[in-house]
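User: My advisor asked me to double-check a structure prediction for O-antigen/teichoic acid export membrane protein before group meeting. I don't want to rely on an old file, so could you generate it fresh from this sequence?
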Amino acid sequence: MIRSTLRSGGPVRTVLANCSARLLAILGLTLATVLVARIGGPAEVGEYALLRMLPGLVGVLCVLGLPGALAFFLAEPRRGLPRLWPTLMAIGGAGAILGTVLWVAASPVIAKVFFPDEPPWLIAAAGATVASQLVLTLGKTALQGLEDRRGGDLVIAAEELAFLPCFLVPLAAGIHGIAAVVVGLGLADLVVAVDAWRRVSRRLGWRRLGLAGGAFGWWGRPDRQLGRRVASYGLRGQVGGLITLLNLRLDVAILGAMAGPAVLGGYAVASKYAELLRLPGTALTWVFYPRLAKIDQAEAARVARRMVGPALIGIAAAAIPVALLASPVLRILYGASFGPAVTPARVLVAGMVLAGASGVASAYLYGRGTPGLNSLVLGVGLAITVVLDISLIPRFGALGAAVASTAAYLSTDALLIGLLLRLSRQPAHGRASVAIGEVTP
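Assistant: Sure, here is a fresh prediction for O-antigen/teichoic acid export membrane protein from the sequence you gave:
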C-alpha cells in the first residue's frame, strides 16, 4: 500500500518538478534583484524585498487563512460541498478590500518606519499590490487543492519570472526607483493571476473563466455556516502560515527598521540564497498535503515516516556545497558591495539543514486536518526569532539577524519532526480523534 501511494502519479517526479519550478522562480527573482541592485544599489534592493513581503502579509492576514484552507476544502469529498466556491470567493473578496484599505490607512506609518526616503503617497499606492498578490496566491493554492500540479508549478515559476519583463515596462516609460518596482510588482501579479484562475476554471470544466455563475462559476450566495468552517480551519492554519512567514521574513522587517535599507539589501540577498535549501521541503509540503488529506490515517503516517529520512539526509548533504559557493556566487552576481552578505548567508544555510524533513511533517499535520499543532510548534520559533533579533541586531546587524533566524529554524524544524514521529506512532483511533477535534468548528 505504501509503495502504491508513493508511486501514484509519480510523487518523486512531482516533487522534483515542483522543485524545478521553484528554482526557476528563484532564477527570475535573482535576475530581477541583480537588475535592481545594479540600478539602485543595496538600498533599493532592501525596499524591493519589503514591497514583495509586506503587502502580501497584510492580504493573507485579512482572509482568515483562506490560502492554507483551500487545499483541504478542495480535496475530495469536500470539493463537492454546496455553495463552496461562492463562500470561498466571498472570503477572498472581502479580505482583498479590507487589506487594501488597511494598507492605505497605515501608509504614513509604513513609510516612516520602512521607507523613510520615499514619499508616503507612493507607499500608499503600493497598497494596490495587496489585492493583486492575494488574487495570485489564492489562484495558486486553488491549483494545489485541485491537484493540477503542472499548472501549479507553472504559476509558481511565472510568479517571479514575470516581474523582470514587467519591471522593464515602467523603466522604458521613464519611471524609475521604487515607483518602477511598485508598477512592476502589480503588473506581474495581475498577468500571472489571470493565467492561474484560467487554469482553475479549466480544471473544473468551466468556461469563460468561471464567470457564468450558478454551478459553473465562482459567484452565488455564500453559505455562512460553511464560511465558519473554512475560517475555523483557515485561522488555525493561518497562525502557522503567518508564523512561518514571520520566521522567514521578520528578520528582514526588524533589520530594515533598525539598520536601514542598505544593510537590509545585503541581508535579503543572503537570505534568498540560503533559502535554496528550503525548496525541497516546501515542495514536499505542497505535493503531499493534498495527497495525505485523501488517504486514511494509518497509511498517511506510514508514508510520512518513510519520507523523513531521505529528506533529512538529502538537504544536509546539499548544505555543504551551497555554503562553500556563497562567496563566489554572491560577489559575481551582485558585485563587491554585497561582500558582507557572505557570512550571514553561510550562517543561514546552517539553519536550513532540517528543512526537508520538517516539510514532510507540515504536510502530514495539514493533510490530517491538524493545522493547529503545526501552528503551535511554529510559535516557538517565532518567540526565538523575536527575542534574538531584538537582542542581536542592534549589536551585530545582519549577522545577528542570521544567527537569530538560524536558531529559530533549527528549533522549529526539530520540533515538527519530533511531533510527526510521535503522532505517527499513535494508534489510528488516537490520531483520528485529534484530526476530528481540529477540523470540526
